[in-house]
Amino acid sequence: MLDASLMQLMWLASPALPIGGFSYSECLESAVDSAQAATESGATSWLVDQLHLSLARSDLPAVAQGITAWQADDHARIASLNAWVLQTRESSELRAQTEQMGKSLLDWLRNHTTATKAQIDLLAQQQPTYPMAFALAASATRAEVRDCLLAYAFGWAENMVQAAIKSVPLGQSAGQRILSKLTAEIPAAINHALTLNDSTRQAFSPMLAILSAQHEVQYSRLFRS
Question: Are 58 and 129 in contact (CB under 8 A)?
Fold first, then answer.
């Protein structure tokens, strides 16, 4: 990979990217509250399952297909994928997360030098989702799709580990052990994601949907989802 492409992907994966990812736990906080992920081992198992059963089946293949669509200027395909992401968010919190992070990433791109104004405006005219905004940002790096997915998945893993550290709570060493486990699992998740197409891509995580609905009325919360 060219140095410039690698640095762009590192930038996109950074938790310092100002898109608000740190403020979401994606239902982990509810899982901790209901004692399903209230220990280091419980949180590790929960996040590994989320990686394989949710991210690898939905967001990762959508991002991969979105990158290809952006590079081909296939606007109809981008609109279709963006609509699919919106339709598969099963709670108001999860939908608000993808919309807020998508809009924030587009705002970041407006001050960047990669995506064009026409591309940004095209997605902004819809209800931009984070996977499609990330696909736009990643497509401009000209890195391989697999490398782009590695950046997306690692950025997700870092944010989720930070959520676990705060909500379980855990120490930094425990967080690093969870991150080590997730990074070991990410390549297999990406391998699976790259085999999926429109008919096999799916978003079926009923426990996440239930916990997300419960989180909306949870008595005490640190996170927005």
Answer: no
